[in-house]
Recover the amino acids of this structure.
């Protein structure tokens, strides 16, 4: 069965420290890959996406993600977190033959401490 | 990029009633979708809203409970029928242009509370 796994439900990180959020997927063929952020009471904001090409993808707000085909992973990173990065982060995939039909991971809640 | 206006943004409804949520896109999108986000959960696809025909529902969702309309390329509605407290969720619509696999656009969501 197709699945998207975010192993970490909750992560606490100190402001200024680095952050890495994990995402693994199980699909028949490599899907399109995304990271979205959802702040309290806000809608979904796209951080970055991977369709093809360079496996290191740069996004907004200083985030980057690396696609590793051999590990079926698409982990999100940020070198130095800011208090405003506290939010829920969702990894999502969309099959290339059903563009727009997203399957979301369970989400990772990021808490930033002073 | 497209902007999706979704309304209402929130509502509190009595059980047994129905609520219709509207999504208006400011440009043409070829595909539109509806998602549900239950409290503390991730987003789950409810259905694909097909223009001028019946929506395509995902497993676990049925037309009688979640009737969907899409009369044209830029507008869709989702009705949550005969509501119960278990229907309390955030409902989101999204749109994509399938001719250009670039980005999906999401509405701001409708926060529904059923009492």
């Amino acid at each position: 069965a197709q699945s998207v796994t975010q192993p970490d439900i909750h992560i606490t990180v100190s402001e200024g420290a680095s952050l890495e959020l994990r995402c693994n997927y199980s699909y028949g063929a490599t899907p399109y890959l995304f990271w979205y952020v959802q702040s309290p009471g806000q809608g979904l904001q796209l951080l970055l996406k991977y369709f093809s090409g360079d496996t290191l993808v740069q996004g907004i707000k200083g985030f980057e993600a690396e696609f590793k085909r051999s590990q079926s992973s698409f982990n999100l990173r940020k070198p130095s977190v800011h208090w405003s990065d506290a939010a829920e982060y969702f990894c999502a995939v969309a099959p290339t033959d059903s563009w727009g039909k997203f399957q979301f991971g369970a989400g990772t809640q990021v808490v930033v401490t002073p | 990029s497209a902007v999706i206006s979704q309304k209402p943004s929130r509502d509190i409804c009595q059980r047994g009633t129905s609520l219709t949520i509207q999504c208006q896109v400011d440009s043409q999108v070829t595909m539109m979708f509806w998602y549900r986000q239950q409290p503390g959960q991730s987003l789950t696809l409810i259905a694909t809203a097909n223009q001028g025909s019946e929506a395509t529902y995902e497993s676990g969702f049925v037309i009688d409970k979640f009737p969907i309309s899409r009369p044209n390329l830029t507008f869709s509605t989702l009705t949550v029928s005969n509501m119960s407290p278990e229907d309390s969720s955030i409902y989101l619509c999204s749109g994509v242009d399938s001719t250009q696999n670039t980005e999906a656009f999401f509405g701001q969501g409708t926060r529904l509370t059923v009492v």
In short: Chain B touches chain A at residues 31, 33, 35, 41-45, 48, 92, 94-96, 98, 101, 103-104, 106-109 (CB under 8 Å). Chain B has a mean pLDDT of 93. The longest strand of chain B covers residues 89-96. The CA atoms of residues 37 and 43 of chain B lie 4 Å apart.
